[in-house]
Design brief:
The chain is an alpha+beta fold. It contains two helices and eight strands; from the N terminus they run ααββββββββ. About 25% of the residues are buried.
């Protein structure tokens, strides 16, 4: 007679499915709330920036975060596909002059020591504003939220 129960593989599959579901729940819950798309976009950009910084330090080589303001697309580090920012969100970008590729495309460069060229990304929708900032000296990323603009 065999024992009744779950194998480790079955438990890992269930945990992975639950993890994927939980990753999408906040986005679905926040979609119905006005202005929350700005907060979700700011967190997504901040996460991508942190990933690029971590890769620069771990791989001991420069990593780039690139942003197309007009198309509202960004890509960080080793990401293959760009990420789309909600079309309704107004995006602004400030960076070192050397990192501006054109009037609409710029980048933030992260160095192996964790520092960066620095920059600010502003996101505005329906009176809500969020700003993602990268400190040039430390490379640390911060997100500031404001209510009505």
């Amino acid at each position: 007679m065999g024992e009744r129960g779950f194998t480790l593989l079955e438990l890992l599959v269930v945990i992975a499915i639950i993890g994927v579901m939980l990753a999408f729940v906040p986005g679905f819950m926040l979609r119905g709330q006005p202005g929350m798309d700005v907060d979700v976009a700011a967190r997504s950009i901040a996460d991508a920036l942190r990933q690029a910084r971590s890769q620069a330090v771990l791989q001991n080589r420069e990593q780039l975060f690139a942003l197309d303001v007009e198309e509202r697309l960004f890509r960080a580090g080793g990401q293959r596909a760009p990420v789309q920012i909600d079309r309704g969100i107004e995006v602004t970008f400030q960076s070192a002059r050397s990192e501006l590729m054109s009037a609409r495309i710029g980048q933030i460069r992260f160095f192996p020591d964790g520092s960066a060229t620095g920059g600010r990304i502003g996101l505005t929708l329906d009176g809500r504003h969020a700003e993602v900032a990268v400190d040039w000296l430390t490379g640390l990323i911060s997100v500031e939220h404001a209510g009505e603009t």
